[in-house]
Every structure is written in structure tokens, then in C-alpha cells.
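chain below, 117 aa
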Amino acid sequence: MSLHVEMRKCYRTEKLKHTLSRQSQKSSLANEKSLLDEQVSSVSREVDELQREVDDLTAALEATGYEGLLHETRRSAMLMMKNNYTEMKNELLRLRLATHTLRIRARSAQANLAIEK
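prediction:
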């Protein structure tokens, strides 16, 4: 019987160790869950703060009428490009006319030279 008693003691000891180990694991997991919950809560608060900041900045930007400003800037840039294009086109036409005039003068000079000879 003493073997039986020893085995029961050993079993109880092992069972107690196992129970303590499981309780320790549960406690550790509960602590880890608590830490993770705190981190999630903290990140959620940060996200909410950032969203409020984005909303505030968006409202401030819309209050400035930036869409109108963008449209006006785009229109102004288009007008400037159109003016530059018109100036280049006019310069090209002037150069073509000058070239044509020079050709006519050269032909006239050649014709006059041929007549004089």
C-alpha cells in the first residue's frame, strides 16, 4: 500500500503542478490580452485623432475655395500657354513672310542683273 500511497502523492503533485502551470498560462495569456487590448485602444484613439485632424484640414481647405483657385490657376496657365503659342505662331509667320520677301528680292535682283547683261 505504501507504493499506492506514493503513487497517489506523486499523481497529486503532478496534477497540482499541471494545474499551477495552466493557471500560470491563463494568467500570462490574460495579461497579454490586457496589454493587447490597451494597445488596440491606444491605436484606436490615435486613429480617431488623426481622422479628426484630417476632417478639420479638409474643412479648412474647402473653406479656402481651393477648387476655384485650382480652376483659376489652370485657366490662367492655359491663357498663358495660348498667348505663348500665339506669339510663336506670329513670329513663325513673320519669319516666313521675311523669307518669302527675300526670295522675291533675290529673284528681282537676278532678273535685273540678267537684263543689265
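The radius of gyration is 46 Å. The CA atoms of residues 70 and 76 lie 10 Å apart.
thats it, cya
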